[in-house]
Design brief:
Radius of gyration: 18 Å
Largest sheet: 8 strands, parallel, barrel
Strand content: 15-25%
Helix content: 25-40%
Distance between the termini: 31 Å
Number of strands: 9
Strand order of the largest sheet: 1-2-4-5-6-7-8-9
Length: 271
Amino acid sequence: MLVTSTDAVTPADAVAPVVFAHRGASAYAPENTLAAVDKADALGFDWVENDVQLTRDGVLVVMHDTDLRRTTDAEEVFPDRSPWAVRDFTAAEIARLDAGSWFGPQFTGTRVPTLTQYLERVERNDQKLLLEIKSPEIYPGIERGTLLVLRQKGWLDRAHVRNRLVVQSFGADSVKRVHQQRPDVTTGFLGTPPVADLPSYAAFTDQINPSFTSVSADYVEAVHALKGAHGKVLRVNTWTVDDATNAVRAAGFGVDGIITNRPDVVRQATG
């Protein structure tokens, strides 16, 4: 639905974009680990972003790549398990892996957290979560499983749903499934749909979250001209911006949030 002139954001209303620590403060600690969550907290950032996938035995783990090679020692521990896909390993096997040495020796022994462990840490730190369902096309039912863990850990109560949780994905059908199963949860679509298609996305999502290389002031204005699934102006969080110049540029486009590996750099540039 179209936004009335009284709903629209004007320059006078502009505030600094919300800063999201991408995979935790991943410029300073191994991505998607509890160490990265804690580093974001130490830097003073409420919002952390993470990725979730499914193991062979149906456990949700926090990992970006669909294989384990780049950020763990899976090739050394399991040399005969090529291509080292997350979905081919059990949770117990993944728990054996070192997910920190690749980043720096001080992180040797850091583990891949389960979603349960990750939620517990974010809760302990009183942080907020932008949760990405990764590659849903290869994990049938991951949306229901993710919502189940969120509910078990208390993240689907009113306070969390209203103020501390967004679930996003590059898969439009995945976002739709989350919205259908839990209409109260704030959702985001990762990508840059054509302007003409934005009204159809607004029916099931609350955010359009495009890459920085694809966003412009005109595109942000087009998104902000619509209301999302919960009757509020569609928001725009852009990714991944790690330098001051582009952070200022993104803020100038009128984005609502910036997803970054270097949250301190972005905050200093825009806040």
